[in-house]
Amino acid sequence: MISTLDARPKLLDDVKIVRREIHGKTHYVVKEPKEQKYFQFGEAEVGLMQLMDGKRTPEEIAIAAEKTIGARPPAGQVADFAQKLKRLGLVERTPIEQHLMLVERLRSDRKMRAKRRTKGSILRLRFSIGDPDRFFDWIVSRVRWVWSPRFVIASLGMFGIYFAILFARWGEFWGATFGLYTLSGFGLWDYVILWALFFGIGAIHELGHGFTTKAFGGEVREIGGMILYFSPALFCNTNDAWTFQRRSHRLWVTFAGPWVEMLIAALAGIAWVTTDPGTFVYKLSFLTFLSAGILAVLANLNPLLPLDGYYALSDWLEIPNLRRRAFEYVGWAGKKYVLGMDTAEPGVTPRERRVFIAYGSAAMAYSVFVIAVSVLWLILVLGGIIGPVVWIILLVGAASTLVKLAGRGQALAAAAATTWRAGFLGGRRAAALLAGIALLVVLPFFLPWTSRAAGDFHIEAMPRALVRVEVDGALDRWHVSEGATVRAGDPIATLWNPELEAAVLEYQARVERLALERATAEAAGDLATAASASSVLQEAVNELAVLEAKHQRLIIRTPIDGVVLGQRLSERLGSALSEGDFLIEIASVKSRYARVRIPPKRAGEVVEGQTAVLRFVARPYFKFVTTVSAVAPAAEEGWLEARVVVPDGSWQPDPGMTGIAKIQTIRGTLAQAIARAVRQTLRIDLWL
Question: Which domain holds residue 506?
Answer without folding.
Answer: 464-585
